[in-house]
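Please check the following for our workbook:

***
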Amino acid sequence: MGLDAMTVSTLDLQGGNSFFLREKIAALPIISANILRRDGTAPFPPWVLKQSSGISLAFIGLTGGSLENVRDFTLSPPMPALEKSLAELKGKAQFMILLSTLTSEENSTITREHPEIQVIISCDLMRGNFVHLPAPGTIIAQTTNDLASLGELKISWQPDASKGWRENRPVPREELEKSLTAGKEEIVRMENLITAATEKGKRRLTHRIGDQRRLNTLLKAKIDYSLESDSLVQKGEVSTFIPHFYKVYPKPGMQSVFNIVNNLEKQLKELQLETQ
C-alpha cells in the first residue's frame, strides 16, 4: 500500500523477534518510540520524517497494551519516550502525526499536554470509524479493526490557524432553518392546546413541548456552529478536515481493498501535481 510509516501493538509483538526478521516484515516502515528488546536495545526507529507538498511531516510511533505472551520485547513508559522524540524533532517538522496503540484516555492526555501534535491515528479495539477533537489543536482518528474499513482524512492545514480544527463538510443550513421554524410553530400550536386539554392531555403536551424545545436548541446549535465555521474558514483561523471511511467487503485481501487503495493513490498523485 506504499505506507510512509506504521506502528505495532503488543499483539503483534507476540510473534517474537523472529517474526520481525522475516523479509517482508523487516521491509515495513515500522516505528515505535517505546518498544525495547529484552537487552534494552530498540528494534525500531522512534520516528520518521517525510516531505509532502513542501511540508515536513513527522510520524512518531507509541505502543501500548498487555505484555502477556510477549517474550522478546518490553515497553518503556510512553510519555517520556514521546517527550524525547518531540525534543529530537524540534525545529525539524512542521506537522506531527502520532501513530498510537495507547488507550483513549492516554491519547486524550497527550492532546492536552502536547498541542504540537496535530493528528493522532489511534488503535482502540472498542471503537472505529471516527474522528473527534478532544482538544482544539488535535484530531484523533481511526478506522475499525481487522481492516474492515479503510480511512481517508483530507486535511487543509493552516500553520497560523489560531482556533484549531473544523470539519469542512457542507451543512444544509436551509433545511435546518426550516426545521427550526417548524419546531417553533409546533410549540406555539401545542401551547394553545394546553388551556382546553384534560390533565392527562396537559401532561402529554407539556412533555412534547419539552422534547421540541430540546430539539430546537440542538438545531440552533448546529446552525450557529456552521455559520461560525464558515466565518473562521474564510478568515484562515482554522484548519479543516474531511473524513471518509470505505467499507472493505466482503473481507480483507479482496479486490475491493486494492480498488480503494488505487483510487487513493490516484487522488494523491493528482493533488501532488496541483501543488507543484
About this structure: Residues 56 and 92 are 7 Å apart (CA to CA). The chain has a mean pLDDT of 90. The chain is about 40% helix and 20% strand. Residues 173-232 form one domain.
